[in-house]
Target: Pentacotripeptide-repeat region of PRORP domain-containing protein
Amino acid sequence: MEVSAVYLCSAFAIGSLPPRPCLPHPLSGRFVKKSRNSVCRLFALSKTLQQSHVSASSTSSSSVSPSPVTAKPSFDSPTRRAAVAEVKASPDPVSVLPRVEGVLQVQDYNNLIRYFGESRRWNEISQLFDWMQRHGKLNFASYSSFIKYMGISRSPIKALKVYDSIPDKSMKINVSVCNSILGCMVMNGRFESSMRLFEQMKDDGLLPDLVTYSTLLSGWIKVKNGYSKAMQLVQELRSKGLHMDSVIYGSLLAICASNNLCEEAEMYFQQMKNEGHPPNVFHYNSLLNAYSVDGNYMKAEKLVNDMKSSGLVPNKVIMTTYLKVYARGHLFEKSEELLSELEALGYAEDEMPYCIIMDNLAKAGHLSEAKRIFARMKERDVKSDGYSYSIIISALCRSGLLKEAKQLAKDFEAKYDRYDLVMLNTLLRAYCNAGDMESVMQMLKKLDELSISPDWNTFHILIKYFCREKLYHLAYRTTEDMYGKGHQLNEELCSSLILQLGQSGFPSEAFSIYNMLRYSKRTLCKSLHERIVDILVAAGLLKDAYIVVKDNTPLLSEKCLERFAISFMKSGNINLINDVLKALHLSSYQIGPDIFHIAVSRFIAKPGKKDLLLQLLQWMSGHGYCVDSSSRNLLLKNAHIFGHKQIVAEILSKQYVMSRKRGSRNATK
Model:
């Protein structure tokens, strides 16, 4: 398992993003493990929403459908506070709203949205917002808050539906509302869609602010080639007269680190300082992450010393990233010293620092040392989500210690009742390598029970296993499922499977996999085309073989084309014989007289196809081909099928003369 790609990077990406200075609850220095997307709880949105709520409380003209002007209890009145408390306490909050409608104001409803959102009561939020829409108790802060929490609840479609339903154009391009919906989409991995929506918003009149750009930038941190997209946004914000702040720089540093752009990260770090933005721990951590890519511990040491000189104290995140630099630089003694320091400070309650060292030790071939760290972690009863087990199980599999890997997998299952895709793939690989079919089936059942969607690794593990166990049809069905779910097929593995399917009596399935590869918009190995032609010809699937030959004739050897041509003339669709011969001729393949003889014999055996035979003979004359003596005798003997023997005689005479002329030219040469 690639720990840095699955588990470690997500946590450090979180730590890389600095909070805006004006946030009411700035991120603390303490390290809290979260998923990557939960980070995107959008530090940037917090500022926008805070400003929005202040604005909402100072104006009533921004609501969608203002209520008639009536005397309302003041914000601090006991009546309003009691009404809000009653709604919060009710098991059915919406049922209380009609009774307090005359008391509450829009900002009270917005506060209720935030209350239910922070409590993760998604149903209540949706019901409350629906009621607010029906009764016109909305302003831009209402939309901003609701959309924000729909993003957190992984309901981007619902958020988009609400955004699209906003009737007021000016409200729809309100920067707070726009930032919320863009943040929602970024949080849920819809980066390309968020950029398209952003362009539409600008066309409609949106004036983006720094929060808008920092929100969009945060989406490109873990995306391949995200740096080029980020540069477009940076260029745009500068063209609008906006100046980058510490949050923007933090995002850029994180993007550089995730794209292995160490020099660019250093440039932005220095530029940020030159512009008067003092770096905080998050900026330092992002640059440390960039140094960790190639284990550049010398620069990392200098950076940490610089950080200490500036008065900042390394926290858990910094120390763990620093440990990663040493581990990737194969300075394992240094990394263990930092691990001991983390343990002494109480910063090693979870498995992350242990995983970093174990993973790099295992990849460097030091399996026994990795196992020692694993044992140390277990002795300290460190909280584990299974990643440490995954690292050691994978390392054991790579080292061929399959029984030990299988036993550790069983130990994990017995001790923990937690599974995610990474762990399931690790266990699946261990059981597949050990040939334990029963356990493999149990893991597949777990995937179904937990509604976990298999990824590329899952399919790849299973296909290799089924091939090794000679369960070729099952391997085919798994490949078909993999392709249907949009995963890229492995050409080498599929080529092997195509051959095995052909040899095992499944030519149609072999052809199906060939087509999956062909339609995946890639250039296939030349030998694969020839392999599938031979499989189809041997199975008598000549029409399918003709399709492959017609599309790939220049890539096929003369022997392969000859085998196909002879088989098709003997057994292929008689109505396609002429088409096949013409296709072979166009490919510069020199058709031999024996192939024409087989074709002529088949046509003569089917008098009803005399027109096709006549067309063939005329085509041969026009392209320099002549029938051999045995074919000529056969044609003359059966000339009556054409009605007039003279027709065949004239064609054969023309071919004979042409043959003599060609012979004379060859003799002269």
Q: What stands out?
A: Confidence is low (pLDDT under 50) at residues 1-71. The two ends are 69 Å apart (CA to CA). Residues 536 and 545 are 6 Å apart (CA to CA).
